[in-house]
Amino acid sequence: MYGGGYIPGQENEKPDQFQEDPVKLKEFEDRIARGEKIEPHDWMPRGYRKQLIRMIEQHAHSEIIGALPEGTWITRAPGFRRKMALIAKVQDEVGHGQLLYNAAETLGKSREEMMADLLSGKSKYSNVFNYPAKTWADVAVIGFLIDAAAIVNQVANSKGSYGPYCRALERICYEESFHLKQGHDAFVALATGTKKQRAMLQDAVNRWYRPIIHFFGPPDVASVHTEKLMRWKVKMMSNDAMRNQYLSSYVPKVRELGIDFPDPNLRKNADGTWSFSDPDWDEFKRVIKGDGPCNKERLAVRKWVETEHRWIREALFNPNAKYTLPLS
Amino acid sequence: MNKEAAQELMLKMADDALIYGHRLSEWTGIGPILEEDIAFSSISQDKVGHAWQLYQLLEEDFGMPGPDQLGFGRKENEYKCCRLNELYTRDYAFALIRHFLMDHAEFIRYSLLRASSYEALAQLAKKVRGEIKYHVLHADTWVKKLGAATEESHSRMQAALNEAFPYALGIFEPGPLEQELIDTGIFIGEERLQSEWLDEIRPIIEESGLQLPATTDAAMGGRSGNHSSDLADLLEEMSEVLRSDPGANW
Amino acid sequence: MEKSLDPRIARLNIQRNEEGASPIGKHEYGESFEVFVQSRRGKQHVHAGTVHASDPGMALIFAKEQFGRRQHCVNMWVVATSEIFAFQYADSDMFETVPEKLHREPGGYKVRDKIEAYRKKISQQKADKS
To answer: How far is it, in rounded angstroms, from Cα A65 to Cα A130?
Structure first.
């Protein structure tokens, strides 16, 4: 799942933080302008490397943390089909994390460092996984509406400039399309089911509406930094463009089932953009910073995983192993 | 063919696969290493899938209720899984040892069933045996690695083996219709399975630097529906959503 | 920690531990291995990605599920990344083909014209004789 469009920390970056060799920079930018990909050992501006590590790493964290809210229902999934599908889906999220950590590693940051930064709170991840999955309907909402949002973002990013990230995203997008179908199927089953099921679904949609609006990040503000990230094909679409594309595709698919969003101001404008009520961007910032309903639990669980199984890593550890960055 | 006997065998195999697969899925998303999380989760899905296929066969050939009702809707004492599979653990050493002991038995069982006089079961056994071959390779790789690596990993694995072994002997608890199964050529029998199993696991355990417990005490009862409270808890949890709105389509 | 909504997590009985050093040491996740997947007999093994593992045997059991669970495979290879030798992208101009190297391309050999001319000549000769 789930890079989100928003990269926490990007707003603190100064556009000309690093002085780069103008000849190499021009070669690099020309290559990207020609539509060629950048590969791991190519020369690249430090700002590019830094931003990509941050973005891919946060995407990876979002995958493995994203496995937790849905994992909430693994042991309670109703019936064989849902049970196997949910295990497979959560497994895919972990698999995406694995692919993305490798992609980020090619840029020079080890998986160990990334995991340590996640546990210490230094690295962030998508806001949406800090909300609880209270009922089975949350699994349907996450599988349909959150995955759909992630696809918008990931399809855009898969056309970016960094080869390893594009390759990982190609496979991820392929698997996400299966998740989306499965999520839609579970969503429709509830929407067309009993009164109780519909009520459960509407309740879940109500709770997830705001985090979904937050997902793509705050409204666009033009900045030199963003302009540069777009030119370098690190950021492929603006937050608002992604959000508008998403709402145009999925709001009708929810409304056709007689389910609605808890916002009387949610509507499409004549120019194709969407309006919605103020979603409280302060809440978004608080959640990203660590003060959402589930942040503490999510990190405590990952910390348990690493602490509890240290004996296994120590047993496997080979002191003579040569550490090498993944090839691609 | 003796229908009751075949039904007895398939039901315990299906229950084993479901309960064991369910226990494995408790690690999905929180496994010890990302790559291992993925591998263990695949094994979990395979097991739940095997259970599903067996329950389907029970429905088609013997007119039993469908997989969702059979798998999620019976009382605790109607389940015929062995007690090894129902035990809850948060210890990965135990999870691996159970996996090792159980999957060696599964692999031999399904291999032998390829020759079953019950054709549908023989077909199913041929189909799923390849998956279980991987499960065994996975288990062997881990047991060999952790059995001898560090003092801590050795002692954790040995402790888990000591605890799990009597339960593993319970895998081979014969059912009431055991003799009919053998006489009609449906299955070669639990006694033969156990002896082949011991021949398989013994050298691997020795190679891993572990010791096979000397005990012959087996934790019996599972095959006749006598379970620990762990199974009751598991079933209540597993059926929570289904029970919340009976008759609904999920 | 507050009781988790996930019964699996609730059972772990995690004591929240906010302080304390990182539980992850340097290079604890093992070496990286490159994975090559053969989709069908007769096809080549193709690079599929990377796994972290302690040794090749472990790398294989990990690779099978991470790179084989969704696509059909008949075989896989793993090799430690550190054992792979590669060119530098900075030298990729070495691979650029100059147009004069037509002797390596199928288009560099145009025999049809010669054959046609020869056949014309022979049939002319035959016609002249008769």
So the answer is: 9
Residue B35, chain C, CB below 8 Å: the answer is: yes
CB pair distance less than 8 Å for C22 and A120: yes
Phi, psi of A147, deg, nearest 5 = -65, -35
CATH number of A10-316: 1.20.1260.10
Q: CA-nearest residue of chain C to B28?
A: C8
**CB proximity B33 to C under 8 Å:** yes
CATH 3.40.1210.10 fits C28-85+98-129, yes or no: no
CA neighbours within 13 Å on the CB side: how many for C2? 8
pLDDT at A8: 56
Domain ranges of chain C: 28-85+98-129
What's the structural domain count of chain B? 1
Helix (H, G, I), strand (E, B) or coil at C115: helix
| B130/B136 Cα distance (integer angstroms) | 10
Q: Which domain holds residue B204?
A: 3-211+220-244
User: Of the candidates A58, A35, A31, A56, which has an alpha carbon nearest to the alpha carbon of residue A43?
Assistant: A31
pTM for the whole thing? 0.94
- Residue A124 contacts by C-beta under 8 Å, 6 or more apart in sequence? A8, A9, A58, A61, A288, A289
- Least CB-CB distance to C32: which of A132, A310, A326? A326
Minimal C-alpha gap between C88 and chain B (Å): 29
- Does residue B249 belong to any structural domain of this protein? no
**Is C112 near chain B, with CB under 8 Å?**
no
Report yes or no on B250 lying in a domain.
Answer: no
Instruction: Output the domain CATH number for residue B38.
Output: 1.20.1260.10
Is A5 exposed, middle or buried, given 0-12, 13-18 or 19+ CB atoms closer than 10 A?
A: buried
Closest in B25, B49, B249 to A75, CB measured: B25
Q: What is the pLDDT of residues A110-145, one digit of tens each?
A: 999 999 999 999 999 999 999 999 999 999 999 999
- Residues in C whose CB is inside 8 Å of some CB of A read 1-2, 4-9, 12, 14, 16-17, 22-32, 34, 47, 49-55, 58, 66, 70, 80-82, 84, 86, 88-90
C-alpha angle A261-A262-A263 in degrees, rounded to nearest 5: 95
Q: How far is B103 from chain C (nearest CA, A)?
A: 15
Residue B8 burial (10 A CB sphere; 0-12, 13-18, 19+) = buried
Statement: residue A3 has pLDDT above 50: no
0.90 surpassed by complex ipTM = yes
